[in-house]
## 1
Amino acid sequence: MSGLAQIATTRRDPPGSTKVGVIGTGVIGSAVIRALRAGSIEGVVLTVVVDNRPAIDCPVPQVSLEAAIDQCDVLVECAGQACVASHATRILESGVDLLITSVGAMADPQVADEVLAAGPGRVIFTAGAVGGLDMLASASAFMALRSAKITTTKTPASLVQPWMDEAATLQLLRTDTPVEVFRGGAREAARLFPRSLNVAATVAFAIDDFDLVEVVLVADPDGALTSHLIEAEGDAGEYRFEIKNRPSALNPRTSGVVPYAVLRTLAVLVGRPVRIV
């Protein structure tokens, strides 16, 4: 027995527990599923999972989204921007709370408007692989920021995209020095690199200004860690945060810490915050 099936499946749900479903059983979703099944958040019970592909060795029932909405108090999205665009509003309008990991979906103004207007379910976004967002959000709310920039550095292989032609792909994979892959706004960054630059949308969403944020994406063949350098300046002060995460061993497009950021955010959403929020 391996994977998700390693977690025991015989536990009964305690009275008054918060029933949670996870949408997506990829690298992030699977880690969240394992942690919840192991009881990582007191009073939270993993009830179902949702995926458009069969989940291998799943410790709880795999059901349709409609069934998950009927059975859960909270749904955790780990399935990508398209899932948010297609289903977030319906989830929230049903009264179910939603934790979103694919913040890049909010780069689409129509999606953002619909999600933020929906309810009565509550929506919360995880910071995922980046930090310092609480300070940036506070600073931008206090006094306007004049500039904001995020420079992300990843391995070349993790940045290959389906829209790249063969020549561009080979050039990226064969580089032996750091090379700039993208420079532009947060909306375009989230669209072109939906799995690698959710962080850019997260920064933009935190300061409530997608048009202000400049994004630079660098491929570094010698970069063992994924780096995010966030810089901002305004009347409230000057800010500089650098985060260097170890990539997930299973998917280098994401950082290994992301599932644990999701779990912390979930604890806040269900009213069981830990340490500083």
Note: The chain has two domains: 3-128+257-269, 133-245.
## 2
Amino acid sequence: MGDRSSTAIHPAAVIHPDARIGEGVEVGPYAIVEDDVVIGEGTSIGAHAVIKRYTRMGRENRVSEHVVIGGEPQDYKFNGCRSYVSIGDGNLIRESVTIHRGSTPEAHTTIGDRCFLMVASHVAHDCQLGNGVVLTNSALLAGFVSIADGAIISGNVVIHQFCRVGRLAFVGGGARVSQDCLPFIITEGSPARARALNAVGLRRAGTEATEITALKRALHVLRTAPRLEDALEELDTDASASVAELVRFIRSSKRGFSHPRL
């Protein structure tokens, strides 16, 4: 970590002497950085933000005003053990976001690279977010939720603990999610149901047209097959890598998934 003389720390900020602050870090007025915190180079911490102990943050993150990172889990069983929040590089964390650390000894709440957490979104204990995940305003993740790369969670979505959201999924605004959300699919409603292929998101991610066509067919098979196992057996014969990923996701689901037929 760099010399603090190379950083821009406001004199009204409170930085614990044991915090490890990288070169070029900016810390705004009245922000608090506790002990046993690592903040990577080029990161900015806004006014009144609180970075609590056991937080590990990479390079060039932008943390806005009134954010709290590393708060204790909202879990009756939590016993005060050492656990972590681990954040990658290039994330944008906007005003009043809260991110809680793991709930068991040495456990991590993890956020990847280039995620965008918008105003007042919440990431609970033991959640795992991949790269390029978007949480829109007031999206709320309960404990142990997993969000795969490139997924977008719209505003006021609530996701039940232990649910998974697949890669390049889109969850529509106000959805009440209590089961897994399929990759590549738009899921919305209360209760949430798979509605359509996330064609726009797939194209923006550079997905080949042949893969998009294969996923459209897979969605049709899931909707029309008399039994789920019949659908999966038919999809097992598809050469598409994206369809294979969809099938693996369904087979590994423990909570069930938001089915397109319902």
Note: The first helix runs from residue 199 to 204.
## 3
Amino acid sequence: MIKRLGVLGGMGPAASAEFIVRLVEQTPATCDQDHIPTILWSDPTVPDRSTSLLNKDDKPLPYLLAGVKGLFSAGCNLIVIPCNTAHFWYSELVRQHPRITFIHIVDSVADALRDLNVTNSTIGLMGTQATIELGLYQYKLNKQGWDCIVPTREEMDTLVQPAINLIKSNQFEQAHDMFITVIHSLIANGAKAVVLGCTEIPLSVREDSVQGTPIINSIDSLVKSAIKQFKKGN
């Protein structure tokens, strides 16, 4: 039986808070008791994941392990991580905590794509420099039949990463048009769906579709997987 859902967050804080809001909104419930018992571990002091990945160090890992330990001590035996780049340490978290069920955010996105019947197709992918360059999504999704296309280096340097940085400073509206420009570019290059592979992006891009093309955001995908897994385990 799943006791509590743990949210390993703070990366960034706004994305973690947004996950909680969307979890409450999307959980089928008619009273308080129908909702999922949840504990948020929000630690914004975790070293920047993208920087560590590009520098090939493991500075975030002790912070992530401390968060998992804290959540497990509080009774959480199901954990989600509303941060894409943190999933580069996913295997190590699973290895060190075999009694906990972890949900991988890319698996959640894959389920969302299948739910929309977007299979064996070209999909666009947006995310941080590290997520894109190190292939967090490409590795898993290519094996399942999707062909991933990504923004150009210029688009990453002048639009995507600067827009993500704007969100981290709470400038959501200013980032919106920058993301939309890249989404249009991905669609023009053949994307049948566009994945927002950074949990900061849905704070700015709230559209479900652009030019009739589905937009898959990783926060909602993770929310749906968490609800499904919790109900399944109880």
Note: Residues 172-188 form the longest helix (17 residues).
## 4
Amino acid sequence: MRRNDITFIGVIDRVIKGNDGGYLVIDYKTSKREKKKRTLMDDNQLKGYAWAIHKLYDVPYEKIYCAHYYPVTGNFVAVKFSRFQIDRWKKQQIEKVWRIRKKKKDEFWAQENIFCDWCEYKEACPRFHSEEIVCKRIDEQKELKKQNTQKK
């Protein structure tokens, strides 16, 4: 979905259209720790799903339910967002994207997060290694690339 030259991309686990024309958006969760309704009311992912369903199917927000389903426990936690909540969410997302777009290349610092253990660049990341080691590994990669280019 596009908004203000920004593309929102996501994959919804399941969408069910009800007999009354309403929609139920289900996000399957593998965790045993369930989120409470009040926590889901602040969930940016579900707000994004509600907005997408509203735009794709031209359905009012009051006919869209968004839920987490926990197959491990069999529990289902559903919420409904107002137009005001979604409009505020959209505005915040757009502002966040423009703040990022205005940054200079050297203003992006490495941030440790849950994906670091799977990152192919971890060995050359300043978050995990000294500047000296990072520079050495970058030089090694440049040399490998150079050698591979010469072989072709």
Note: The CA atoms of residues 138 and 144 lie 10 Å apart.
